[in-house]
């Protein structure tokens, strides 16, 4: 087979099968008789095939539309079925995508290790940690650094129109640093925020926009929560959500606060901390697992 | 039948040329494109990619038919106009003739003596 034949055979692949079978010999004959340049004629042939396919497709579409037009009830049922099916799939996929498929939206995500305590009543999830347990890890872990914790909380905001119930997290000062995120305004917490008498708070983008009118000079303003004044030191990024293994997902909280560092009773039964750590350089997840299990 | 034929008009120039080429005599594909090239002084070139899809459709619609005697030679299959195809070509010719006559009436073309 010479180059011309090869080109014609390739171009013929664009045509429907029955057309190819009927006209291949004639088309090859025509190419032999004419002295047209092989590449140009083959391209022309290819284009003809694409046009023919497009034409057949357009006919099919017109035929289908005519049939549907004659059966409006059937068409409506088909359309509704498609709409429901697509809608249900989109809804389920949106949840799956956010919960399972997309990586967590934190720069440090590859190094974040969530810690849970083994519990025979909740074998799959385990339970949250108590403060003494967290402190054990902070002082003893060789594989994890920046051990951070959060606990879901709620406070009532007053002094800005109608009182509002807010949901938020009490967090350790290193919480945002461990996740590796940056605020859009101000700063995240430091150890200084833990000192007694300091009441710092970071607010969500939503609270900042809806309740404080996206005030660019909001830093340093005080919010009255449960009757006490909290100073706004930062505004979280618009898409920031708190990871919450207890509730299984990313929770859009209104605020994040730091509780003062006070001596607490040694209550190992009070388990309410969602805790996570960052793998130290060179430490593997397996090593961290082994260490944590050893501590149990 | 006449009403049906009117619904098929106007034909595209290429289709009309193919019908004209076959009105003269039975031709195989390459001969059709040569004849069209000749009758249009080289202005219309039917490549295999444009000719054979047209031929295929016209066969399906029974405007043309394979010429019986040499249908066995797959490489040079000849085609002829069917009576239906001839009526369509005539109807298109009449339509064009009417248009040309109107053009003369409105002095777009010189009157024929």
How large is the share of residues in beta strands of chain A? Answer: 15-25%
The averaged pLDDT of chain A comes out at 85
Oligomer: heterodimer
Shape of chain A: elongated
The Cα radius of gyration of chain A reads 33 Å
Distance between the termini of chain A: 76 Å
Give the percentage of residues in beta strands of chain B.
Answer: 5-15%
Instruction: Give the % helix of chain A.
Output: 40-55%
Structural class of chain A: alpha+beta
Q: Strand tally of chain A, please?
A: 11
**What's the main sheet of chain B like?**
3 strands, antiparallel
Give the overall shape of chain B: globular
How would you describe what is shown here?
- The complex is a heterodimer of chains A (296) and B (113).
- Chain A starts with a helix and ends with a helix.
- Chain A has 296 residues and is of the alpha+beta class.
- In chain A, strand 6 and strand 7 form a beta hairpin.
- Chain A contains 8 helices and 11 strands.
- Chain B has 113 residues and is mainly alpha-helical.
- The mean pLDDT of chain B is 89.
- Chain B contains 5 helices and 3 strands.
- Chain B is 58% helix and 8% strand.
- A 3-stranded antiparallel β-sheet of chain B has the order 1-3-2.
- Chain B has helices at 2-8, 13-24, 29-39, 48-60, 83-105, and strands spanning 27-28, 64-66, 78-81.
Keywords:
heterodimer; A: 296 residues; six-stranded mixed barrel; two-stranded antiparallel sheet; 20% strand; B: 113 residues; mainly alpha; 3 strands; globular
Q: What is the topology?
A:
The complex is a heterodimer of chains A (296) and B (113).
Chain A (H helix, E strand, L loop, with lengths): L2 H10 L4 H17 L4 H33 L1 H30 L10 E4 L15 H10 L3 E15 L5 E8 L3 H5 L5 E2 L13 E4 L1 H6 L11 E4 L2 E8 L6 E3 L4 E3 L3 E3 L16 E6 L5 H11 L1
Parallel strand pairs in A: 3-10, 5-7
Antiparallel strand pairs in A: 1-11, 2-3, 2-6, 2-11, 4-7, 5-10, 6-7, 8-9
Helix pairs in contact in A: 1-2, 1-3
Chain B lengths: L1 H7 L4 H12 L2 E2 H11 L8 H13 L3 E3 L11 E4 L1 H23 L8
Antiparallel strand pairs in B: 1-3, 2-3
Helix pairs in contact in B: 2-3, 2-5
